[in-house]
Amino acid sequence: MTHQRPPPELEPTVFLIDGPVERARIPELCEQLRAFCEGHPRGEVVCDVERIDAPDAADVDALARLQLTARRVDRRIRFRRASRELIELLELAGLAEVLPCLETLGVQVVGESPQREQVLRVEEERDPADLAAGQLEDLERPGFEAT
Length: 147
Prior knowledge:
Helix content is about 35%, strand content about 10%. It is of the alpha/beta class.
């Protein structure tokens, strides 16, 4: 049995992040990615993040901005060789689906979420001295036209 390679336009191209990202460097990194995407055939971009060893909020911000940059040029990014810490940080931030890693932690939610109480409407009394509140009530009356 022979294995055929996918056409080059479908093979992912790899973009390397060379270490932790300082916030001031994020625009430069995004510009590098944009130029990288323009110079490579269409397809998925795999971003190697192995060198981000102690991830922080700046790294997550950089990855999110890279994903936005890729989408602006009609591409998608998946991240490979992410550390456990980076994956956990993306999950904690609620960005694991938007910034997908090829590796996952396989975390499984066990149990049921608590029942939420129905939100009830709160009614407030109007302060007769508050002119703005009176004007708002006028706006709510049918047929009222502001001048």
